[in-house]
Design brief:
The protein is mostly helical. Helix content is 62%, strand content 0%. The chain contains 13 helices and no strands. α3 packs across α6 and α6 crosses α7. It is globular, with a radius of gyration of 18 Å.
Length: 234
């Protein structure tokens, strides 16, 4: 699987030092554990349905969106090992294709834009918890989210689903992106509550302290006190 670093750096959102650190860490991770090619053993039937599409790297936006809708709010933000494993198995190839900019054409439709955000922003958070890879495609997700919003794709969905097109702004460590998220989500009280929590952390620390360990960043005493006190992760 190719690393998304080169693809990310040519976008209008330049890589920060932390973004470069993430991308380098991901490349190292991949060199340590290259993915073996999947083969169909002789005498067995070839896979069909979503399994075949996943192995053949022909997952469609509808596959991703349908999976996400069926999972629902109970699984979207909870830590669920079984769900994480299912998510990873089904869409690993699609995630790396999106990271290599091979699926940018999906931005032409609302469903495609939503599927891209799920692959680039949500998939890593479920599949690579605790590693730098969890945040590796955040800059790309943010750049594509900007394009999706400019096209008005988020308006095609009810607030809970539209939120996944907007979450790259909330996951950004730039204050201007936090402000844009709050401007885009409207009056939904629940989304505003979480959005303001994220923004408050960026105002206070300029970054999300809970990411420091995975990214190899030094934690300040103030950040450590915040984490020790159960501060919201973001």
């Amino acid at each position: 699987m190719g690393a998304p670093l080169a693809a990310i750096t040519d976008d209008r959102h330049a890589l920060s030092a932390d973004d470069r650190q993430v991308a380098v860490a991901v490349m190292i991770d991949r060199q340590r554990g290259a993915h073996a090619k999947r083969q169909t053993p002789r005498g067995r039937l070839a896979p069909t349905g979503w399994i075949a599409r996943t192995l053949n790297m022909t997952v469609t936006p509808e596959d991703v969106v349908t999976f996400w809708k069926e999972a629902g709010p109970d699984k979207w933000f909870a830590k669920n090992d079984a769900f994480d494993a299912d998510f990873k198995t089904r869409f690993e190839a699609a995630h790396f294709r999106a990271a290599r900019r091979e699926l940018d054409g999906w931005l032409a439709t609302p469903d495609g834009a939503l599927a891209l955000m799920i692959l680039l922003d949500q998939y890593p958070r479920n599949s690579f918890r605790g590693s730098a890879h969890q945040f590796a495609t955040d800059p790309l997700a943010l750049a594509l989210a900007n394009q999706a919003v400019e096209a008005g794709h988020h308006r095609a969905f009810e607030p809970q689903l539209a939120n996944f097109i907007l979450l790259p702004f909330e996951h950004s460590e730039r204050l201007e992106d936090q402000d844009r998220y709050l401007a885009l989500i409207g009056d939904d009280a629940e989304l505003r509550k979480w959005g303001e929590l994220h923004r408050d952390i960026i105002v206070r620390f300029g970054r999300f302290p809970h990411r420091n360990a995975a990214l190899g960043r030094e934690t300040t005493p103030e950040e450590q006190a915040f984490l020790d006190g159960g501060g919201f992760g973001g």
